[in-house]
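Have a close read of the entry that follows and walk me through the local backbone shapes. See right below:
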Amino acid sequence: MECIGNPRNDQANDAQAYSHNSYQVNSPGNNYKLRTEARRLLNLAFPLMGAQMAQLGMSLTDVIMVGRYNSVDLAGVALGTSVMWPVILLMMGIGLAVTPAVAQLDGARKYAEIGEIIRQGLWMAIVGGLVASLLLFNIAPLYGFMRVDPAAAAISVQFLKMIACGVPALICFYCFRYLSDGTGFTRPALYIAVAALLCKIPLNYILIYGYFGLPELGGVGCGVAHAITMWTQLLLILVVVTRKRFHYTRWMMQFSWPDWHRIKPLAIVGLPIGMTLFAEVGLFSLTLLLLGQFGAEVVAAHHIAMSISSITFHLPLALGMAATIRIGFRVGAAEILQARTTAAIAIASTMCFGVVAAIGILLFRDAMVAIFTTDQGVHDLAYTLLLFVVFFLVFDATQATVMGCLRGYKDTRWPLSIALFSYWVVGLPLGSLLGFGWLGETMGVFGFWIGLSTGLGIAACLLCIRLWRVSKDAELISALAS
């Protein structure tokens, strides 16, 4: 069957040389060009990295604009954001199963089956979006239970109610984005993220401060701007996926009711992804809450160090996303050796970047911290904490990329187990024991960072071992792909 409207002819021609009916390891004598594969991987990764940076830009926009309004609204938005993202990432992660599913079908040239995956994925997105909205709309009892400051909680509750109006659109947006990403077309993710940022900035300005006759909404206006931006992203991705380029997937050819037999495989792959993202984000959120006992200066320094660390995290994360797509395609084309080579290229690139970034932070950490604060006490503590970032950055980058590689093989349950063990059985307990002095002298924030660093190091090592085993086991790859 010929690809209709699919411009990735180079990938399709590569796939023609291999059997699609078995998962046999190809001969090492195949003329496989590392430089070409590295270029393809980076071509996929750079737009995804730009999209992640634009998303970070939206978060910074919220902090800057609401922070200039007043501190109570900033606290309310910060509280709302800390609740919003774990819930959204859980639902978004479940839908992330669409990416490797589409990539493997694309590699196997089973184009007609892609459409049904998207239709069933949309049902998952609609249900997940509505569940997330329901949770966010009824969050007030949680704040009462945690005894959150009433003034900040009132802002946060209204902020999340506005967010809840846009979450279903956002989850559906990601489903369509996974169609585009999974077929190797990652540039729309960048373009739409930049458009969303350009939309969010003026909306924030108008709605927070009340211009053009609109009421002054403060932090709640930030939530309204979020919701409008979410629906805008959905409309923009619909413009993309209805183009002729995607006609070969036939996702618009018919209507499909929910089919559990097709949803179940997606849920089996996607639920562990969502839980892994939730577990990781939840770890950092809980750590921040625990550090609150040590005072505002410690919390501020911790936040600055984590913010600088998160900036360097986007390239490894994008490489992991690109590896999911590329490995999925190779597995679908029964190119098992080539898929393993793709994983090796992704990991080597990530480790090189991690080393360079760590050296950069070590050399310029004073100037980096100075951008965030003028308080000398906060500056000095954040400056010291960045030494931990220098130490664990390579591990953190590696685990993010390896996680993406394993998703390309649809291996998600073992990574979830590794994440839970590394972060919640080792990292957080160790950090608490050292931080609160339950094993001797109280180490405070340094104890928690030792725990985080240890957890990330263990996760990176165990995930690499898992990838080594999966990538060379043709029978296991076949079982995971089925």
